[in-house]
Amino acid sequence: MIKRLNELEIGEQGVIQNIYLDEMSFFRLSRLGVMKDNIIKAKFNSPFNDPVAYQVNNSIFTIRKQDAAKIEVSV
Amino acid sequence: MKNICLVGNPNTGKSSLFNILTPSHHHTGNWTGKTVKNEGSFFKYKDEKYSIVDLPGIYSLISESDEEIIATKYLLEEQYDLIVFVADAVNLERSIELFLEVYDVFPNIILGVNLIDEARKINLKINKEKLEEVLGVPVIFLSTKTKEGVNELLDTIYQYNNRDYIEILHTKKLQNYLDWARDKIPRNMLIYALFHDDYVLVNNNKRLSFFRHYISKIDVVESYHNCAKNIITNVLDSRNVKEKKSDKILNFLFSFKFTSIPILIVFLFFILWVSISFSNEPSNWLFSFFLKTEQPLIKVLSFIPEFIFNPLFYGGYRTLYWVISVMGPPTIIFFILFSLFEDYGLLPRIAFNLDYPFKKCGSCGKQGLTMCMGLGCNAVAVTGTRIMESKKIRILAILTNAFVPCNGRFPTIIVLLEIFLASTLGMNNSFWVALLLTLIVIFSIILTFISTKLISKKINVDEHVLFTLELPSFRRPKFYRTIYYAIKEKGIDVLKRAAIVSFPMGILIYLLSVWQVNGLSLFYLISNKLDYLGVLLGLDGIILMAFILGLPANEIILPIMLLGYLKCNTLVDYGTTDNLKMILINHGWTIKTAICFIFLMVCHYPCATTLFTIKQETKSFKLTFLAFILPLLVGLVGCLIINFLF
Question: What is the ipTM of this complex?
Answer without folding.
Answer: 0.94
